[in-house]
C-alpha cells in the first residue's frame, strides 16, 4: 500500500486537490497494521504565527485587463479519450510519467489502483501500442471527450422573469446568472440575506459572498465556498443549491442551521469559471498573466499556510503552480481579508470535484492535527448521511495522507491560521465516469447529498 502511494506521489497528478485512497479500503485501516494511526500528529507550525510575506499582491485599483491574451476561439477536445489505467506495477507509473512528459497524455485523477488519463487524439494509437507492448491494463471510459462536453450542459430554458432570477439546477449557469441570483435573494429576503463584494479577480470580476443569518448575537460562523478550480462546475452549482434550500426553508431547519451566520462564496475563481465556459472546458487555475505562454495560478496552492511546500509547483506552466507568494492572487487575498474581518468561525467547507472524498487537514504532508479524531468522526457521520440520502460512497481521510501532500490549500489555512475547527475539502461526484465533465442531470442528486453532509458538519460546528 505504501509503495503504491509513493508511486502515485511520483505522478503528482496535478488535476485535483489531493485525492486518493481506495474507496474499498480506506488508508486508515490499511496502515493500521504498522501504526496506531498512520499519520503523525502535528500541531500548527511556528512559522504560521509569523506575518506572511506577500509578493506581487495587486492593489485594489490595479486591474489588469488581459482579454487580448485569449486564444482565438475555443479549445476543442475532438478525439481526446479518457482512459482508466491500471497502476498495479511500478513500470506502469513510470510509463505514464514518460507519456506525460512527451505530452501524449494528461492526468485527471486517480487512486492507488487506477489513474484517469486523458489521451490526446494524435497519441491514441501510440499510447495504445505502448500499453499493449508493456501489458498495461486500461479501459476506455470516454471515446470522444468533445462529444461529452457538447452534451454535458443543456441550453438553459428561458423562463420569464417572474421568479426574478435565471438560476436553475438543471444546467450549469454562467457567472452573471449566479451573481444575479445572490442579488435577487438579498432583495427578496432582506431580513435573512445580504450580499457583499469582497474583492475582484485578476480581470476585475466581482467575488461575491452571500451572508445568510437571522442576526442573533452570539451566532457562530461557517464559511462555504465553491469554484476555486474553474472546471469543477458541479461545485458552484452545489453551493447555490444549498443556499436555495436554506433560504427557502429556513424556518423548518434545525437550530444549527438557523442560529448560524453562513457565508457562501459560490464562485471564488470567476475569471477561470468564465474561461472554462467560453474557451477551455478543462481550465483549472485563475487567469493571472504568467511567464511566457503560461498563465494562471492554482488558487488552491496559493493560501498562506505552509505555502510552497510539497505538491505545489514553482513552474507557471504546471496545473499546480502556487503563485509568486502566499496570497499573491487577488482572489485568495480577498478571501483572507474577508475571513480575518469576522470572528467566531467554527467551520470551513470547500467544494471541489471529483472523486467523492471528504478530506480534512493537513494537506501539506502526511500528518494530522491534534484534534483529528473529532474531524474524522464528523467526516464519518457526514459520509453516512450521504449514503442515507441515497448517495454513493465517499471516502474520508486526511487530505495529504489519503493520497499525497499538496500545500497551500484553503482548508489548511482555515484550520492552521484561522483556527476553524471543522475544515473540510469535499470532492463531489463522480468517481471517474465523467470526471470534471459531469452531465447537468447529476447536479441535483450531487447537491442533495452534499447538503446532507453539510448539515452534519453544521451540527458539530454549532456544538463546538
Ligand atoms: Zn478542485
UniProtKB/TrEMBL annotation:
SMART domains (UniProt xref): Zn_pept
Signal peptide range in chain numbering: 1-21
InterPro entries linked: CARBOXYPEPT_ZN_1 (IPR057246), M14A-like_propep (IPR036990), M14A_act_pep (IPR003146), Peptidase_M14 (IPR000834)
Active site: 427
Domain Peptidase M14, chain residue ranges per copy: 171-461
Record Gene3D superfamilies: Metallocarboxypeptidase-like, Zn peptidases
Subcellular location(s) per record: Secreted
Pfam families to which the protein is assigned, alphabetical: Peptidase_M14 (PF00246), Propep_M14 (PF02244)
GO-annotated biological processes: proteolysis
This protein's UniProt keywords: Carboxypeptidase, Disulfide bond, Hydrolase, Metal-binding, Metalloprotease, Protease, Secreted, Signal, Zinc
Cofactor section: Zn(2+)
Transmembrane segments: none
GO cellular component, one term: extracellular space
Chief localisation class: secreted
The keyword Metal-binding belongs to this UniProt entry's keyword annotation: yes
GO MF terms, alphabetically ordered: metallocarboxypeptidase activity; zinc ion binding
Chain's role: Involved in the digestion of the blood meal.
Family: Belongs to the peptidase M14 family.
PANTHER family: FI01817P-RELATED (PTHR11705:SF91), PROTEASE FAMILY M14 CARBOXYPEPTIDASE A,B (PTHR11705)
Name of the protein described by the UniProt record: Peptidase M14 domain-containing protein
Lineage of source species: Eukaryota, Metazoa, Ecdysozoa, Arthropoda, Hexapoda
Amino acid at each position: 500500500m505504501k509503495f503504491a502511494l509513493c508511486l502515485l506521489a511520483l505522478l503528482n497528478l496535478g488535476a485535483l486537490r489531493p485525492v486518493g485512497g481506495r474507496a474499498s479500503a480506506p488508508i486508515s485501516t490499511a496502515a493500521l497494521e504498522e501504526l496506531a494511526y498512520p499519520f503523525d500528529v502535528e500541531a500548527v507550525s511556528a512559522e504560521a504565527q509569523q506575518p506572511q510575506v506577500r509578493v506581487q499582491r495587486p492593489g485594489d485599483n490595479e486591474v489588469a485587463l488581459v482579454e487580448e491574451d485569449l486564444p482565438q476561439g475555443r479549445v476543442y477536445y475532438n478525439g481526446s479519450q479518457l482512459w482508466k489505467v491500471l497502476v498495479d506495477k511500478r513500470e506502469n507509473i513510470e510509463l505514464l510519467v514518460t507519456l506525460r512528459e512527451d505530452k501524449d497524455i494528461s492526468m485527471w485523477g486517480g487512486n492507488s489502483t487506477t489513474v484517469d488519463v486523458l489521451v490526446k487524439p494524435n497519441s491514441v494509437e501510440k499510447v495504445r501500442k505502448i500499453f499493449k507492448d508493456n501489458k498495461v491494463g486500461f479501459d476506455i471510459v470516454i471515446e470522444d471527450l468533445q462529444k461529452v462536453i457538447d452534451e454535458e450542459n443543456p441550453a438553459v430554458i428561458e423562463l420569464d422573469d417572474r421568479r426574478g432570477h435565471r438560476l436553475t439546477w438543471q444546467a450549469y449557469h454562467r457567472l452573471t446568472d449566479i451573481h444575479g441570483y445572490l442579488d435577487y435573494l438579498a432583495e427578496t429576503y432582506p431580513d435573512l440575506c445580504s450580499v457583499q463584494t469582497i474583492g475582484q479577480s485578476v480581470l476585475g470580476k466581482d467575488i461575491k459572498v452571500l451572508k445568510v443569518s437571522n442576526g442573533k448575537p452570539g451566532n457562530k460562523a461557517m464559511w462555504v465556498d465553491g469554484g476555486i478550480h474553474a472546471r469543477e462546475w458541479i461545485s458552484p452549482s452545489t453551493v447555490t443549491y444549498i443556499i436555495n434550500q436554506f433560504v427557502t426553508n429556513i424556518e423548518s431547519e434545525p437550530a444549527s442551521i438557523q442560529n448560524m451566520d453562513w457565508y457562501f462564496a459560490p464562485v471564488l475563481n470567476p475569471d477561470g469559471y468564465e474561461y472554462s465556459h467560453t474557451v477551455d472546458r478543462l481550465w483549472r487555475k485563475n487567469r493571472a498573466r504568467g511567464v511566457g505562454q503560461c498563465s494562471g495560478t492554482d488558487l488552491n496552492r496559493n493560501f498562506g499556510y505552509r505555502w510552497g511546500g510539497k505538491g505545489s509547483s514553482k513552474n507557471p506552466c504546471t496545473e499546480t503552480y502556487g503563485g509568486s507568494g502566499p496570497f499573491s492572487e487577488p482572489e485568495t487575498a480577498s478571501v483572507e481579508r474577508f475571513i480575518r474581518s469576522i470572528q467566531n468561525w467554527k467551520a470551513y467547507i470547500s467544494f471541489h470535484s471529483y472523486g467523492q472524498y471528504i478530506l480534512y487537514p493537513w494537506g501539506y504532508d502526511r500528518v494530522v492535527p491534534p484534534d483529528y479524531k473529532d474531524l474524522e468522526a464528523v467526516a464519518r457521520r457526514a459520509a453516512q448521511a450521504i449514503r442515507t440520502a441515497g448517495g454513493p460512497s465517499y471516502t474520508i481521510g486526511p487530505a495529504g495522507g489519503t493520497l499525497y501532500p499538496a500545500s497551500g490549500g484553503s482548508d489548511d489555512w482555515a484550520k492552521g491560521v484561522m483556527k476553524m475547527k471543522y475544515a473540510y475539502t469535499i470532492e463531489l461526484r463522480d468517481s471517474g465516469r465523467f470526471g470534471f465533465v459531469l452531465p447537468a442531470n447529476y447536479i441535483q442528486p450531487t447537491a442533495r447529498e452534499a447538503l446532507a453532509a453539510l448539515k452534519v458538519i453544521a451540527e458539530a460546528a454549532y456544538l463546538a
